[in-house]
Amino acid sequence: MTNQVNILPMIALRGTTVLPDMIVHFDVSREKSIRAVEAAMLHDQKIFLLTQKDPEVEIPELTDLYQVGTVAYIKQVVKLPQDLYRVLVEGLDRAEVLGLEQEEPYLKAECEIVTAQEEDYPEPVKDAMLRSIRELFQRYCRESGKVSKDLVTQIMNIEDVQETIDQIAVNLPMAYQNQQKLLEAVSLNDRYEILGALLGSEIEVIHITKDLQRKVKSNIDKNQREYILREQLKTIREELGEENTADDIDEFKKQLKELDASDEVKEKISKEISRFKGMAASAAEATVQRGYLETVLALPWNKKSEDSEDLENAWKVLEAGHYGLKEVKERIMEFLAVRKLTHKGKSPILCLVGPPGTGKTSIARSVADAMNKKYVRICLGGVRDEAEIRGHRKTYVGAMPGRITVALKEAGVSNPLMLLDEIDKTSSDYKGDTSAALLEVLDPEQNSKFNDHYVEIPQDLSEVLFIATANDVQGIPRPLLDRMELMEIPGYTENEKEHIAREHLIPKQMEINGIPEGKLVIQPAALGKLINNYTREAGVRSLERSIGRICRKTARAIMEEGKDKVVVTSRNISRFLGKERYNYLMANEKDEIGIARGLAWTQVGGDTLQIEVNIMPGKGELLLTGQLGDVMKESAQAGISYIRSVSDQYEIDPEFLQKHDMHVHIPEGAVPKDGPSAGITMATAMLSAIIEKPVRADLAMTGEITLRGRVLPIGGLKEKLLAAKYARIKEVLVPEKNRPDIEEMDREIIQGLDIRFVDNMKEVLGEALA
């Protein structure tokens, strides 16, 4: 045997023995033990562990400890309340204590590592020992049923007899006295004999216990036993004040009997009621089980509402609730027509995308009214936990079902209209991805078996009419977007806003503010000024707030001044709303060199963009100002390259651009600007400044440019054309590939505009340069 002496901090363990290769944690509270742990952590994290012979001894002497212990490596130390430390260690080597180096402020022991020499047993002997110990271990596992199958498989696959014995000793549940015997056994033969004797003894004890249980059980008559147990249970519940549990069980059984659900669902709930019946009412799990049963019994499994098939009435409801939104209304009418013909059919999953205030959320309620469906709304803005959708596992304390299940419970039917508001505002963190959890909910091929982690019973969502809303498609992951039918709701035109204000907003605000009919009149010119100069938005939310402000001032005038009628005109509207907040950048009065008018899309609608270019002596530098984004900067570079490539067609001196600097500026520098739609506008303004030829003041343009001068298509065309109309622009240049978009637009939008389609810069310059 080889010897190695170490001096290490020591802990006296009570009721625990650590073997080599064993990973175990224990708590230390004695001052010396805590100091020993701290000393070990400051050095090499090694510590010597000796077990007390009597766990009750508070301050042990060396004679109170076993002579053989374990040198262990401290893997983790966690501080607990009440001055407790939880230590996680891994046993390394057997060691025999030689003496104590110090006793204060902690125990430090001199210990000698005990290493067994190689024992040269013949192969038949090793094979016999391996087979014998395996057989004993398998018998113990079969009889006790306390060892996992994975552990059994892992140990049975070990071919080395010494490693097999050590692994069984480490993983077998046994008293610390028996573990100490194994620790003190250094040779392979000693450990084999001790472990074999322990396994044989445990198997015998298990046999005796089972025999006793069988004899006791056979001596009690079954009926008599049940009677005694029921009486005892009844008495115990009365003593604990738990008589209400039986009433709850009866109520649950009654609700289950009345529940409209499939046999599989009823069978599952029946089993859960039986589990609840066997729980003590004071136990925490009984409260969890009661909440679970209340939830699943309140869900509308097969309960459905009758959808309206009156198409004429449905159209009237949709028309009365909202002005415009023709595409959405027609899609709902198509769904109703199909449902009326087939009396079935999967509900569509619609996603309404558009700027704020365009009526996306309110249209969902109108659709529910038109179809006679229950309406529930789920706001997904800021939701970042996957459990918000799928629910928590009901084994957790405070577990709750997901929002989908809660909404179904709130609706009371399995086929409501469910609004998923702000679906583009979801996010993800370490708790999971919310949008990924929505994939199953919004997939018509999968949501008939939606599995909420809390309910644990598949729910059929195929009859639910899902309508989602979003402000920006870019915020929706592609797989989720692919599962929905996208319907864009662009901004309203000035005419549409006037209709909405007259038919909906003004009557609504007058009723809210208690103004009788006829007491307030807002003239058409005043309403037009309100829309154009006091609100700038794609929707009508700010417009409604402004009308509400007029109504409040009217109410005050009626009450304080005794006025019978208040008339708002374009001249006196400033008395109600103050000075004008917005002014559209109107078309210039005359043609100018180096100034071109572009069209831009913003989240609150369209706007015009004036691009100014100056040429000055210099070194050929290009200066871009106005807080431009990377895309617009690249468009300007592409415009310069195009102009250089065609300089001979416009008789531009080849050295002109090397001897002059060019400054491109877009006013309102504090407003960030970006997007691929200002390329042809910047190129036109730059060429105008170079050849000193003015750009038409009554013309605006939109489109991206390539190096070869091709004009690429753009988006947001409706909003851009509306902005051109507001700015009194007469002619608009639009990419040829956007012609289908123009053809689909209402005549009201393009009326009064001369729209010219262009395919390349040559056509643009031919129209733009005066």
TrEMBL record:
<dbReference type="InterPro" id="IPR054594">
    <property type="entry name" value="Lon_lid"/>
</dbReference>
<comment type="similarity">
    <text>Belongs to the peptidase S16 family.</text>
</comment>
<feature type="domain" description="Lon proteolytic">
    <location>
        <begin position="590"/>
        <end position="770"/>
    </location>
</feature>
<dbReference type="GO" id="GO:0005524">
    <property type="term" value="F:ATP binding"/>
</dbReference>
<keyword id="KW-0067">ATP-binding</keyword>
<dbReference type="InterPro" id="IPR008268">
    <property type="entry name" value="Peptidase_S16_AS"/>
</dbReference>
<keyword id="KW-0346">Stress response</keyword>
<feature type="active site">
    <location>
        <position position="677"/>
    </location>
</feature>
<dbReference type="GO" id="GO:0006515">
    <property type="term" value="P:protein quality control for misfolded or incompletely synthesized proteins"/>
</dbReference>
<protein>
    <recommendedName>
        <fullName>Lon protease</fullName>
        <ecNumber>3.4.21.53</ecNumber>
    </recommendedName>
</protein>
<dbReference type="GO" id="GO:0016887">
    <property type="term" value="F:ATP hydrolysis activity"/>
</dbReference>
<feature type="domain" description="Lon N-terminal">
    <location>
        <begin position="8"/>
        <end position="203"/>
    </location>
</feature>
<dbReference type="InterPro" id="IPR027065">
    <property type="entry name" value="Lon_Prtase"/>
</dbReference>
<dbReference type="InterPro" id="IPR003593">
    <property type="entry name" value="AAA+_ATPase"/>
</dbReference>
<dbReference type="GO" id="GO:0043565">
    <property type="term" value="F:sequence-specific DNA binding"/>
</dbReference>
<dbReference type="GO" id="GO:0034605">
    <property type="term" value="P:cellular response to heat"/>
</dbReference>
<dbReference type="Pfam" id="PF02190">
    <property type="entry name" value="LON_substr_bdg"/>
</dbReference>
<dbReference type="InterPro" id="IPR003111">
    <property type="entry name" value="Lon_prtase_N"/>
</dbReference>
<feature type="binding site">
    <location>
        <begin position="354"/>
        <end position="361"/>
    </location>
    <ligand>
        <name>ATP</name>
    </ligand>
</feature>
<keyword id="KW-0963">Cytoplasm</keyword>
<dbReference type="InterPro" id="IPR003959">
    <property type="entry name" value="ATPase_AAA_core"/>
</dbReference>
<dbReference type="InterPro" id="IPR027543">
    <property type="entry name" value="Lon_bac"/>
</dbReference>
<feature type="active site">
    <location>
        <position position="720"/>
    </location>
</feature>
<dbReference type="Pfam" id="PF00004">
    <property type="entry name" value="AAA"/>
</dbReference>
<keyword id="KW-0547">Nucleotide-binding</keyword>
<dbReference type="GO" id="GO:0005737">
    <property type="term" value="C:cytoplasm"/>
</dbReference>
<keyword id="KW-0378">Hydrolase</keyword>
<dbReference type="GO" id="GO:0004176">
    <property type="term" value="F:ATP-dependent peptidase activity"/>
</dbReference>
<comment type="function">
    <text>ATP-dependent serine protease that mediates the selective degradation of mutant and abnormal proteins as well as certain short-lived regulatory proteins. Required for cellular homeostasis and for survival from DNA damage and developmental changes induced by stress. Degrades polypeptides processively to yield small peptide fragments that are 5 to 10 amino acids long. Binds to DNA in a double-stranded, site-specific manner.</text>
</comment>
<dbReference type="InterPro" id="IPR004815">
    <property type="entry name" value="Lon_bac/euk-typ"/>
</dbReference>
<dbReference type="InterPro" id="IPR015947">
    <property type="entry name" value="PUA-like_sf"/>
</dbReference>
<dbReference type="InterPro" id="IPR046336">
    <property type="entry name" value="Lon_prtase_N_sf"/>
</dbReference>
<dbReference type="InterPro" id="IPR008269">
    <property type="entry name" value="Lon_proteolytic"/>
</dbReference>
<dbReference type="InterPro" id="IPR020568">
    <property type="entry name" value="Ribosomal_Su5_D2-typ_SF"/>
</dbReference>
<dbReference type="Pfam" id="PF22667">
    <property type="entry name" value="Lon_lid"/>
</dbReference>
<dbReference type="InterPro" id="IPR014721">
    <property type="entry name" value="Ribsml_uS5_D2-typ_fold_subgr"/>
</dbReference>
<keyword id="KW-0645">Protease</keyword>
<dbReference type="Pfam" id="PF05362">
    <property type="entry name" value="Lon_C"/>
</dbReference>
<dbReference type="GO" id="GO:0004252">
    <property type="term" value="F:serine-type endopeptidase activity"/>
</dbReference>
<dbReference type="InterPro" id="IPR027417">
    <property type="entry name" value="P-loop_NTPase"/>
</dbReference>
<comment type="subunit">
    <text>Homohexamer. Organized in a ring with a central cavity.</text>
</comment>
<keyword id="KW-0720">Serine protease</keyword>
